[in-house]
Design goal:
The complex is a heterodimer. Chain A is mainly α. Chain A is about 70% helix and about 0% strand. Chain A folds into 2 domains: about 160 residues, no CATH class; about 270 residues, no CATH class. In chain A, α8 packs antiparallel against α9. The two termini of chain A are about 15 Å apart. Chain B has 2 domains: about 50 residues, no CATH class; about 120 residues, no CATH class. Chain B contains 7 helices and 5 strands, in the order αααβααβαβαββ. The longest helix of chain B is centred in the N-terminal third of the chain and has 25 residues. Chain B is elongated and about 65 Å long. The chains are: A mainly alpha, B alpha+beta. Chains A and B meet through α8, α17 and α18 of A and α1 and α2 of B.
Chain lengths: ~475, ~200
């Protein structure tokens, strides 16, 4: 079920009405579990069983881990949980990818092997709910979470419908405490949740799908060489599209959760105003970057090791982060590029951080500009379906096709410039602040006008019911 | 001595929102998020919501009236979703129209229904080629020993014949015959899946 569909509107109204009309806390949680499974099962009912089996297994493994006496047996239960979750993810998401690469590898050494093509349907949101569930056993192992006694509560923590299929990755340790007792609905919380949902839908339907996706698709789908202006604008259009698409989903999820009395953490914090790549990853897909930081980077030694090892850790983490996004080498290159950006930034910081000119406004603005440009270059690999397209795009961006084609119309160019320019301006103006602060400072009539404008724009554009990009991950 | 940054801000006379770090009391999410509690801006939300709902309903109503006054009426949004919905309706006994814009625009489903006895499912798409859709239908829907595919004469049987050699291989042994007892502007290609004999 998509947030940007009328089906969801009806579903949400019914769930919210039923939720607040029930007085019993247990009955409310039961309702949310049923609603979440309907939300997920509406796409493909059998995969709801897969979701439940993963959740139930982790619940049981978490309990076994807490009962285990020695560290070795605790580790054994953790390994079982990690293997179970990752093998599930590996089979559904990386099965064909691994087979194809295995076939390629054998062909290189002269063995012709024709593997059967597995018609595996990727369960929507499997990367997200696997991480939701995995965080539970990982936190129990790290002694930062006590296992819950209620399977129902854990099922709800993993499958809570606002964040189920496209994040944010809500750790069980963040959500389970909210299920202990009913959260009082604070003044304005419900309406603020509705406003956030409107903002999220506006970002998705109007800005991502209507204003930017068409140009990005045309540029990346064009078979011929493109001039630099069109190539850069196409990549910038995609940079805006993926931000509005994913941040829009996260904002909707946060708003929907607020309407039901739950609090989810921010997943984005104005990432295109980042100065440097470590800053970028503190602002982009925060739930994933903190997940990788806490469960992978720090256990590998983090930055408390020798510089070469720390740099290797960064590259390994970003490589896996890239692979998490999709079973394709283009995603791997995207991750490796970000890993190498982080390493270069680390070296430069070590050399120049204490220089006086390093903290001037001009340097910071230049740093922000360079970060955005480098992130755009990396997006080429994220969006391109294969390396041929990626190479053609990069060739166009860096002047390789001076006599290439110009396919964007003036209106499309203005549209991209307006939307991405506005986005960057807003990100820079709010980079040390947050949306709540901005709304708090604004007079009520401006909030009313902005909310009305967004709602009217959603109704007028209507969108194409495009799925969110991150559904495929 | 004022820093370069503060001079910059003063020179530009930017609004307070710009480049201003929120004070501690406002900085609920400026630093690390507080545990599980999101800040709720304290505004007159009831009044704002009522105003928004009234304005949006009025604006949508006015827009609808305006569109109708200049001749637009409610219609289906003819997009990929509608095509998918039509594709799901195709059963082994169905008649499906596939092809490009000629099949899409030029065929009257009502008239075809009168002539053929059942309403065809419209799967033609502007600027598309019929063959991938035919392959999809042949492999996923029409698993019965034989099935009928209508092809308008304007798409020419010659083209179909020319394609036949390339079609034969991926279809895994499909053969076709033409029958002529059909309405004037339609010919029927009957495909038989040899693997089912």
């Amino acid at each position: 079920m998509l947030f940007n569909s009328l089906t969801f509107v009806v579903f949400f109204v019914v769930v919210v009405a039923a939720y607040w009309s029930i007085r019993s806390w247990n009955a409310r949680k039961n309702l949310l579990v049923i609603a979440s499974y309907i939300f997920y099962g509406a796409w493909n009912p059998p995969f709801a069983a897969l979701l439940f089996s993963t959740t139930a297994m982790d619940f049981w493994l978490g309990r076994q881990m807490s009962r285990a006496k020695g560290q070795r047996s605790r580790r054994a239960w953790l390994v079982a949980s990690v293997c179970m979750n990752l093998s599930m993810l590996g089979f559904f998401k990386y099965g064909n990818f691994l087979l194809e690469n295995f076939q390629w590898l054998l062909a290189r050494i002269g063995i012709i092997y024709q593997p059967p093509h597995l018609d595996i349907l990727l369960p929507v949101g499997i990367s997200f709910y696997t991480f939701h569930s995995l965080s539970y056993t990982l936190d129990i192992y790290r002694d930062v979470l006590k296992p819950t006694k209620s399977l129902r509560d854990f099922v709800l923590a993993v499958s809570f419908f606002p964040q189920l299929v496209a994040g944010p990755i809500v750790r069980a340790g963040d959500f389970l405490p909210q299920l202990v007792r009913p959260q009082p609905l604070r003044t304005g919380q419900f309406f603020w949740g509705l406003l956030l949902m409107t903002l999220g839908l506006f970002e998705k339907i109007v800005l991502a799908d209507t204003m930017l996706s068409g140009s990005a698709d045309r540029i990346f789908g064009y078979a011929g060489p493109l001039i630099a202006v069109d190539s850069w604008l196409g990549v910038m259009a995609f940079a805006g599209q993926i931000f509005f698409d994913f941040a829009g989903y996260s904002t909707c999820a946060i708003g929907a959760a607020l309407c039901l009395g739950f609090h989810l953490k921010d997943n984005f914090r104005f990432p295109y105003a980042a100065i440097g790549f470590s800053d970028f990853w503190r602002r982009w897909h925060i739930s994933l970057s903190t997940f990788l930081r806490d469960y992978l980077y720090i256990p590998l030694g983090g930055n408390q090791v020798r510089p070469v090892r720390a740099g290797t850790n960064l590259v390994v983490v970003m490589f896996l982060g890239g692979l998490w996004h999709g079973a394709a080498w283009t995603f791997v290159v995207w991750g490796l590029l970000h890993g190498s950006y982080l390493v270069v930034e680390r070296v430069l910081r070590g050399l120049f951080e204490h220089k006086a000119w390093a903290s001037t406004l001009t340097t910071r603005l230049l740093g922000g500009f360079a970060t955005f440009a480098a992130v755009c270059v990396a997006w080429v690999f994220f969006r391109a379906p294969n390396f041929t397209v990626a190479a053609r795009m990069l060739g166009g961006m860096f002047g390789g096709h001076p006599h290439g084609d110009a396919i964007l119309t003036t209106r499309e160019m203005l549209q991209i410039a307006l939307v991405t320019g506005g986005m960057i301006l807003v990100h820079w103006s709010l980079r040390d602040s947050n949306i709540e602060t901005a709304v708090l400072r604004a007079p009520p009539w401006i909030v009313t006008a902005a909310w009305t404008f967004m709602a009217c724009a959603i109704i007028l554009t209507q969108g194409n019911s495009n799925a969110f990009i991150y559904f495929q991950f | 001595m004022p820093s370069f940054t503060s001079n910059f801000k003063r020179r530009l006379r930017l609004p307070r929102l710009f480049f201003r770090k929120p004070p501690e009391i406002e900085s609920i999410h400026g630093g690390p998020p507080l545990e599980y509690v999101r800040p709720i801006p304290q505004l007159p939300w009831c009044g704002i919501t009522v105003a928004v709902v009234l304005i949006v309903i009025s604006a949508a109503f006015a827009w609808e009236l305006y569109c109708r006054s200049i001749g637009y009426g409610p219609t289906l949004h003819d997009n990929e979703d509608l095509w998918s919905s039509a594709r799901r309706r195709v059963k082994p006994e169905s008649i499906a129209i596939i092809g490009d814009s000629r099949g899409w625009y030029d065929l009257d489903l009502g008239e075809l229904e009168k002539g053929l006895g059942k309403r065809p499912v419209q799967l033609a798409m502007g600027g598309s080629c019929a063959y991938p859709v035919l392959a999809d239908l042949a492999t996923k829907i029409f698993t019965a020993p034989s099935f009928a595919v209508l092809s308008p004469v304007c798409l020419s049987r010659r083209r179909a014949r020319r394609r036949w050699i390339t079609l034969k291989k991926p279809f895994g042994g499909l053969t076709h015959k033409h029958s002529r007892n059909v309405p004037a502007n339609i010919s029927t290609c009957r495909w038989k899946n040899m693997s089912h004999f």
